[in-house]
Amino acid sequence: MKIVSINSKNIKEEHICCSLGNDKDSINRSLTKKNWMNEQFSNGLVFKKYDVRGKVFIEYMPIETVWKPIIGSNYMVINCLWVSGQYKGKGISKKLLEECIKDSLEQGKDGIVVVSSSKIKPYLTDKKFYLKQGFSVIDSAFPYFELLELKLNETGISPKFSDKSRSGKVENNNGFTFIFSNQCPFMEEYIYRISLVCNEYNIPSTVIKLKNHQEAQGTACPWGTLGIYYKGELFTHELMNEKKFATLLKKLNLIQ
C-alpha cells in the first residue's frame, strides 16, 4: 500500500474514502464532497489516503482557513482521521498522522490541533489515540468537546475554542436549528431528510448551510461540520437518519 495525495489534478479519478459505492446516492455524495475539496485546495486543504478501497485517510488544513470555530494562528487542524474495517490495528492511523506532522514541520507550524471528545462519540476520533501520540487536552466546550494539541514549537501560542462555540448556543430558540457544511458528503442529504421529519410533525426547524470558512468559524458547534440545536442549545453533532431522529423526538416528548 502507498499513500496518495488528492489534489485538483487527480480528484476526478480518485475515490475519497468516506463515500464509497457506484450507486446514484453514493456518486452524488462523493461529488458534493469533491466540489467542497476543490474549493478548499487553494486554502491549504490536504487530503491523503492509502490506495485501497476503504475508509483510510487523513484530512487537514491551516487553522486560518479551517471550517471550525477555533481561534489561533500558525497551527494545522486535523479535520478527520479515519481508518476502518480490516485496516484497523495495523499502525496506519499513526502513519497518516505522521504525514500531517511532517507537512506541519516543513511549513513551520507551531503545532497541530484536533477536535475530540471527553467520551467516545460518533465521527470524532477517540482521544486515547492522540494522547498516545503526544497530544494533550488544552480546551473544552459544551457539552463534551475537547481540543487536543501537539506542540511543535514551544514558543507557539496554543489555540482555543471561540467563546460562542464554548457556550454551544445559537440565537434561534424556536424548535430545531441545523447548521452544516459540505465538508462531510452526507450532510446535505441527511439534514434535508430529517428536516422533512420536523415538517411532518409541525416541529419548527431552521436549516443553515455554511458557505465559507468565515461562517464556519462563527458557528456554535466546535466540530464545525454539523450542529443540531434544540431551543437554542447544542444538542448533538451526530448525523442521523430519519428513524434515529424520530427516536430522538420521542425522547424529547415531541411526538408519540
Please explain how this structure is put together.
This protein has 256 residues and is α+β, with helices and mostly antiparallel strands. The protein folds into two domains: 3-161, Aminopeptidase, CATH 3.40.630; 165-251, Glutaredoxin. The chain is built from seven helices and 13 strands. It has helices spanning 24-40, 92-106, 127-132, 163-167, 187-200, 213-217, 242-251, and strands at residues 3-6, 46-50, 56-62, 70-71, 75-83, 111-117, 136-141, 145-151, 160-161, 176-180, 205-209, 226-230, 233-236. The strands form three sheets. Strands 1-2-3-5-6-8-7 form a seven-stranded mixed β-sheet. A four-stranded mixed β-sheet has the order 11-10-12-13, with helices on one face.
List the helices and strands and how they pair.
Blueprint: E1 3-6, H1 24-40, E2 46-50, E3 56-62, E4 70-71, E5 75-83, H2 92-106, E6 111-117, H3 127-132, E7 136-141, E8 145-151, E9 160-161, H4 163-167, E10 176-180, H5 187-200, E11 205-209, H6 213-217, E12 226-230, E13 233-236, H7 242-251
